[in-house]
Amino acid sequence: MSTTPSNNKFKELLDKLQQESWQLELLITGFAIFGLFTSLQPIKKLWYQAVAIESYNKYLFPIVFIACVVLIVNLVIHVVLRGLWIGAIGLRYVSDEIDYDALNYSKRFTNYLRKKVGSFDKYINVLENYCSILFAITFLALFYIVSFFICTLILVFVGNFFIKSGLFSEFTGTMLLGFFAIFYFILCIVIFIDFITQGFLKRKEWTSFLYFPIYKVFSYLTLSFLYRPLIYNILDDKFSKRLIRILTPIYILAFVLSTFNSIRSNYVLKRGSSTT
């Protein structure tokens, strides 16, 4: 059977897989959450060891740790929403649609609930959309994190080349690194502006003409060519963009909370001593 996008049988197969994908989502999510939670402490330990011995791995472990935190946040939210979706499906089998007349509320509240709550099928459909999009965004966020740190590591490695390679004097290496860092930082700012505005630089003819070479170069540097179809399929949907805006502060909060450490001290305050 041909698997080209224009083939009708292939489209039917995709539609079938789309309807049954929730089972695979839950299976993957369960194993992933368990593995990610158990790996956080070992990753932290290896990170601290790499920093202590000044190993280049100290640049790798922050990427892995942040990626794990983001994946855990997304997957836990996904499990909760998917569990709510399964519960709603089961409830629909028992009681079907919401019967607002049977609630015997006043006309004011009945009209309000019909407008704001709507049908139970609509509620189930919204949960399904959230779950499916969130599962895709989970791995897209992982790619974004990897891309961000690739951009950072490029500057680190170029700095080591100019300063520590021995090919340049200290003054010449510092000057070359400074010029490169300024140029590279400006390009990164341009990419970030297009990312935050969700493609503003691609919409105008003159900005797209100037931005296109930068876009091509960074698409290879950040490996975005591997996940670009996923990005544009999310960006063309208002529902998906709204979910991304909701998740962004959650990512920041989760990462900040994950950096807090409880450190035990061997200091013992003797009885009768003053702390002043």
Please provide a written account of the structure.
With 276 residues, the protein is mainly α. 77% of the residues lie in helices and 0% in strands. It has helices spanning 8-52, 61-95, 100-103, 107-116, 120-164, 170-196, 205-221, 228-235, 238-258. Helix 2 packs antiparallel against helix 5. The termini are far apart. Mean pLDDT is 78; it is low at 265-269.
Characteristics:
276 residues; 9 helices; mainly alpha
Quick structural gist:
The chain is mostly helical and 276 residues long. The chain has 9 helices and no strands.
Report helical residue fraction.
over 70%
Shape: elongated
SSE string: HHHHHHHHH
- Beta-strand segment tally: 0
Which whole number gives the mean pLDDT?
78
Largest sheet: none
SS-based structural class? mainly alpha
Helices and strands, with pairings:
Layout: H1 8-52, H2 61-95, H3 100-103, H4 107-116, H5 120-164, H6 170-196, H7 205-221, H8 228-235, H9 238-258
Helix pairs in contact: 1-2, 2-5, 2-9, 5-6, 5-9
